[in-house]
Amino acid sequence: MPSCPLCGCPYLRHFHRDARRDYLRCETCRLVFVPPEQRLSPEREKAVYDQHENHPDDPGYRRFLSRLFDPLRSRLVPGAEGLDFGAGPGPTLSVMFEEAGYPMAIYDPFYAPDPAVLERRYDFITATEVVEHLFSPGHELERLAALLRQGGWLGLMTKRVASEEAFARWHYILDPTHVCFFSEASFEWLAQRLSMSVEFPAADVVMLQKQ
């Protein structure tokens, strides 16, 4: 039995099984995750991402991202410096922030793998539709929090687990690259672990502030 990829806890229970995969839930941080041996290989994972058609000229995609952009921007000081982590093949949120006057860096392990940007400090970091793809979310989110200046914001977008019954019918688990599923309790645990405050401005938006 694996340990939880968010908190490292060994106390897990079987949460759900479908035709393709199993899903385990951590009894400490409430993360639901796919066992490591059932994840895609990096090559197959990237093949799925290559099919994404997100683009900054798409007004619908901009409206989708505005669910994080609007509440986060309202909390930033002019000229705040940001990082868009997991920007994907068509970075768009970084463009929106740059248009609003916020200098941005981008990082993506497949499309913009520049390790130098992970050595700098930022006033805010965004990760939209990213955390559900992470194999080691505890390590990655702790690393991102360490890149924030005091008072900085970590803004995340991901759909949250509601209940065991809803999970069984959830379209979100059908994407083979989605391997970690957070609940509100998971983010509250994470905030305490990282000494951050946490807000939930929308159903799929989470904002954590470094204290």
Compact overview of the structure:
Helix content is 26%, strand content 25%. The protein has 211 residues and is an alpha/beta fold.
What's the layout of helices and strands?
Blueprint lengths: L11 E6 L4 E5 L5 E2 L8 H8 L9 H15 L8 E4 L7 H7 L4 E4 L14 E7 L8 H10 L1 E10 L6 H5 L11 E2 L2 H10 L2 E7 L2 E6 L1
Parallel strand pairs: 4-5, 4-6, 6-7
Antiparallel strand pairs: 1-2, 2-3, 3-8, 7-10, 9-10
Question: What is the CATH architecture term?
Answer: 3-Layer(aba) Sandwich
Query: What is the makeup of the main sheet?
Result: 6 strands, mixed
Helix/strand/pairing category: alpha/beta
**In the residues, how many domains can be counted?**
1
Q: Can you say what the CATH homologous superfamily is?
A: Vaccinia Virus protein VP39
Strand order of the largest sheet: 5-4-6-7-10-9
Rounded to an integer in angstroms, the radius of gyration calculated over CA atoms is: 17 Å
The outline comes out as globular
Helix-strand string: EEEHHEHEEHEHEHEE
Percent helix among the residues?
A: 25-40%
Determine the mean pLDDT. 96
The fraction of residues assigned to DSSP E strands is 25-35%
Q: Gap between N and C termini, in Å?
A: 35 Å
Mind telling me the CATH class? Alpha Beta
What is the count of DSSP helices, taking H or I runs of 4+ residues?
6
CATH topology: Rossmann fold
Low-confidence parts, pLDDT < 50 over ≥5 residues?
none
The number of distinct β-strands equals: 10
Organism: Billgrantia kenyensis
Protein name: Class I SAM-dependent methyltransferase
GO molecular function: methyltransferase activity
InterPro entries: SAM-dependent_MTases_sf
